[in-house]
Each structure stands twice: as structure tokens, then as C-alpha cells.
Amino acid sequence: MATSRLTTLLDNGTPRLPDTGRILLLGPQADTDLSALPRDRCHVVQTFRPDHDALAARGFDCATAPDGPYAAAVVFLPRARELGQSWIAQACTLTDGPVVVDGQKTDGIESMLKHLRPRVALDGQISKAHGKAFWFGSTDALADWAGPETLGIDGGWHTAPGVFSADGVDPASQLLAGSLPRKLGPAVADLGAGWGYLSARMLERDDIQTLHLVEADHTALDCARLNVTDDRARFHWADVPGWEFPERLDAVVMNPPFHTGRKADPALGRAFIAAAARMLKPTGQLWLVANRHLPYETELGERFAQVTEAAGDNRFKVLQAQRPTRARR
Ligand SMILES: C[S@@+](CC[C@H](N)C(=O)[O-])C[C@H]1O[C@@H](n2cnc3c(N)ncnc32)[C@H](O)[C@@H]1O
């Protein structure tokens, strides 16, 4: 495997990390190369459950929020610019030592560097493997980048920088919510519930007794707790394919994820469909919305005896599937 950017620069001894004290790692992913860092001194903050669990399995001390102070900080740049800025500002408040920022071009590292240059004295940078890493001494100069933790958007909803559809209701979810039947049954789930729009709309139904919101992004789930205050709601910070469902369900509703990072990845949606089929009672039904071009029908046909397109337009399709054929756990 090629040596990563972070390993290259730490092996070169620049920046020199303090010899003692904890090191904050904000946002590394499951497969990020962290081999140049002293694992027993690292504190990983990762809010996406599959990455969080994979890093914990690699032996890192993992949490969903920092708990400083730290001797140094490494920020792995996320895709959402506002979130990246607030992580960098947060890193500065949590350490007096060096702050390293590492990121891919496709995640906006070059534009972040451009915005930082006039505001902080950079101590160094390297370019490698379609990205950059740069570092500087912690500073107060970025205090105004510490963005709000939650955003208020039209409709009175709470979202947060970096969560899915942070600026407004997703049109596909809106189409699905408007296509659902008047009754869904007593036990239902919203898989990949995000900040809770679909769940809030589902709870307009009186026949629901329990609604499970299952979501891997801890930040989005925190927003969902603000948006869905109905006491029939149960919140689960979990990876849908591996979620240990507490009861068999009458209905599963979902707008499944279709990207891994920047890459379209229908395999994730297929894993959600397979998981839904396992969770449903034999009489249960799945309602899902997807971009029209996404090929979910084969997986649905293998997991359910009956599949119909219940609604749609030229961008999205709403599919209803009944009679799960592999309903065993
Ligand atoms: C297309 S969005 C839909 C969000 C929300 N239901 C809505 O309508 O706005 C898919 C959601 O699935 C979540 N997600 C992605 N991978 C997941 C996984 N493995 N387990 C649980 N949730 C996941 C994402 O964080 C995102 O919130």
C-alpha cells in the first residue's frame, strides 16, 4: 500500500508532535492510515457509526464528541465546507499545540487552504495522493469559524452542517411522505432516518404505536430528537444492515443512502432492502423512494413476493414491496 500523506509528513518529523499528551483526531474514516500516530495517545472523534465501530475495532479510543484539552489535533477534512471550518476552529480551542489539516482535493482542501492562508501563519504543507496536508500552531484567529451546532431551516426544522439535506427537506422524501397509506401499522421503522423529516410525517398516523428511527450519523440523530418529540419515537444510533431490531415490524419506510463518500453506491441501498425484509412481519410492507435510475428492482424481487411502483415522477420512484420472502432473522 502506498504511504499516506499523514504518514509521510509525520515520518519526516514535520510537524513535530509533542512527546506526551493526548492527540485529537477529528473525523478519520474506517480505513484512514493512522499508523504514524501513537495509538495509545489518540482520541478519535467520529460520529458515523460504521467508521466509529471500525476504528474502535482497530484499538482506538473513540467518542462522538471531543473532550479536551489535547496536546495536538489532526482534522480530517469532511466534504461540507462549514463543518470543516467549524472542526478546524474547534481544534484550535482544544489544543495549544500543532493543528494538522489533511484532506482530498475532492473534499475542498485547496479552497480551505486558500481561505486559511491570509488568517493563520502556516508552518508547512505537503501535496500527495490527490490531496494536501498543512499545519499551523493553534490560534484564536479562527474563532468566527466555530459555526452553530444546529441550523434552523424553513418549516421550523433543525438540521446541522454536514448532515444529509441540511438546507431543506429532500424532494424525494417529500414525495415518499405524500405517497404513504393512511395506516402503516403499530410497529414501524424509518431506516436512515436523517434529521427526522420522514419520521415526523409518518407520526401523523394514529395507528403507529412505536416508530424506530435508525440512523448512523450521530449528529443527524441529535437533530431528529429535536424534530420528532412524539413519545412513540425510539432513536437508534446504528448501522442499518447490522441493527439488532427489537421487534418485528409492520412497515419499513426509507429513503436509503445511495453514496459512499462521493461515489454512487447502490450496494448500500440493496443492503438496506435486505435488512428491511429481515425486519418485517410476513404481512409487513416496505415503502422506499429512490432516484429513478437506481437499480433496486432486482434486489426487491429477490426479497419480496410483490413489488409495485406506487408513485413517481421523472426523477424519483416510490416502490412498495410486500410479502418478504426471507423474513427470518
Ligand atoms: C438519503 S438520506 C435520507 C435521510 C432522511 N430519511 C430524509 O428523508 O431526509 C439517507 C440517510 O441514511 C444514513 N445512512 C447512511 N449509511 C447508513 C447506515 N449504514 N446505517 C444507517 N444509516 C445510514 C445517512 O446518514 C442519511 O441520513
User: How many individual β-strands?
Assistant: 18
Number of helices: 9
Bound molecules: S-adenosylmethionine
For the record, give the distance between the C-alpha atoms at the N and C termini, rounded to a whole number: 38 Å
Task: Estimate percent helicity.
Answer: 25-40%
Which stretches are low in confidence, meaning pLDDT under 50 for 5 or more residues running?
none
Level-1 CATH class name of the largest domain: Alpha Beta
For the sheet with most strands, the description reads: 7 strands, mixed
Read across the widest sheet, the strand sequence of neighbours is 3-2-1-4-5-7-6
Share in β-strands:
25-35%
Jot down its keywords:
30% strand; 18 strands; binds S-adenosylmethionine; alpha/beta; 329 residues; Rossmann fold; 2 domains; seven-stranded mixed β-sheet; 9 helices
What does this protein structure show overall?
With 329 residues, this protein is an alpha/beta fold. The protein folds into two domains: 5-145, Rossmann fold; 151-324, Vaccinia Virus protein VP39 (Rossmann fold), CATH 3.40.50.150. The protein has nine helices and 18 strands. A seven-stranded mixed β-sheet has the order 3-2-1-4-5-7-6, sandwiched between helices. Strands 12-11-10-13-16-18-17 form a seven-stranded mixed β-sheet. β8 (151-153) and β9 form a beta hairpin. It is elongated and about 60 Å long. The two termini are 38 Å apart. The mean pLDDT is 94. It binds S-adenosylmethionine (SAM). S-adenosylmethionine (SAM) binds at residues 50, 164-165, 170, 173, 192-194, 197-198, 214-217, 220, 239-240, 255, 257.
